[in-house]
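pasting for the record
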Amino acid sequence: MKPVEARETLEKIAKLLASGQGLPPAERSWLVGSLITRLRQPGSDLERLLGLRSRAGGRLHAHTPLPARDAAVRKTCATLPGTNKERARNLLRRLQANDPELLEIERKTARLPRSVRQLERIIAGRTVAATFNN
């Protein structure tokens, strides 16, 4: 199970428990197995046991709005002329001028970087978060 899928499953479980419903056998087994392992091995990482963390160690943005933010930035820049660096500079100027479209992206997702270099990486799709946007 990918970290993003694990998060969706955990959200489903939380909703079922909050509403007082029982859990389907597969979800119950997954959750209880992770909790029992954590209790028996106090140093174990619960995020990893639940599948929220990759085997390589990173969280893969399963809990962040970064993939949505980056996708919105790429969509905004898709029609802008120039190289990715020029687009990033344009975006930064607009951001510094409190452009409503960019402020809305921040409001709905996460703070936009104030660095041309990071904006360029986002536009080019060279961020870890870019790999998790479907």
